[in-house]
Amino acid sequence: MSSPANHVSGDHVPGNQFAENHDMDRWLDHLDETISEVFVQMLGVTCLPSASAAQGDEQFKVVLHVTGEIERTFCLYFDKAAAKAAVYAFTQDETADWEPQVEDAVGEIGNMVVGTLKRKLLTSAIPSSLSIPTVTREYREAPPATLPGASGRDYEFLDNTLEIRLNFGPAAATTPEK
Amino acid sequence: MRTLIVDDSSLMRKMVERALRLAGLNIDEVLQAGNGEEALQLLRAESTTGAVLNLIISDINMPVMDGLQFLEQRQKENLAKGVPVIMITTEGNEAFVRRAIAAGAMGYICKPFIPDQIKAKIQHLL
Predict the structure, then answer these.
(1) What is the DSSP letter of A144?
(2) Residues B5-41: tens digit of each pLDDT
């Protein structure tokens, strides 16, 4: 499990390593503020950096791609309890069946987080577009941080863990776009 | 006020409706569509009934038909002419916004938002 501090793992970082790492830091520098805005304004809950480990083996993985002159892939991992809490925060109804709405909820959170980051960091001088989020339910196989070139952080909301990983370069190794 | 909300996320459609009501806007009826194509079908059906639509709020990034294509096609077919359209976007991409304005949008709101931002935008337009 990763710490909340920035970390870069793996041997391969495409392009100019200094520039890429510097750029990665810029994206990560805005992540805490962006996560906070999305969770407080849209869900009415706080979401803060955390060193807590995700619970359980089952998770929901949300993938979004920024494509164009800049290629970035974001993966958000909600463990099952976090995904359930996200649905309840969205619906404000803890009596409803959460599972039919879970992909919608975590996908929309991913969309808002990455879209907001993109708005803050990419001006119109850097043409780029944001994919529609894809959501998969999966069993945790390995810490996401071991992906080559990945960097990310962990967050906590309502006692649940959300992991966010940023990858550089083409998105072929991740879930395809819709 | 009769309002059409277009978004591929049903949770977001509910959240926008909740924000409209929390903002104190007088919402009589909310029509919903999951993408631009569904919204066009709804507007085509509405055009035969003579019912009055007061506001359209549409997401931009949607599968099947996105919000910009929806606006452009709506303009081509002359559907819901004169009804104010507000776009909702996470990106605030200038090129998208310019295209949306050219296709008849009167403003946009960035997600995440708070109900007062929606209220202010709608009061400014109506």
Answers:
(1) G
(2) 999 999 999 999 988 988 888 899 999 999 999 999 9
Helix/strand/coil percent split, chain A, to 5: 35, 25, 40
Residue B35's identity, in one-letter code, is N
Q: Which helix (H) or strand (E) holds A157?
A: strand A151-157
Binding-face residues of A in 81-140 toward B, CB within 8 A: 87, 90-91, 101, 104-105, 107-108, 111-112, 114-116, 118-119, 124, 127, 129-130, 132
Please state, in angstroms and rounded to a whole number, the distance separating the CA atoms of residues B58 and B75.
Answer: 14
CA pair distance A70, A93, nearest whole angstrom: 39
Cα–Cα distance for residue pair A8/A131, rounded to 1 Å:
24
Instruction: Say what the ipTM of the complex is.
Output: 0.87
Tokens of B81: 């002419």
In which residue are the tokens 């960097």 written? A151
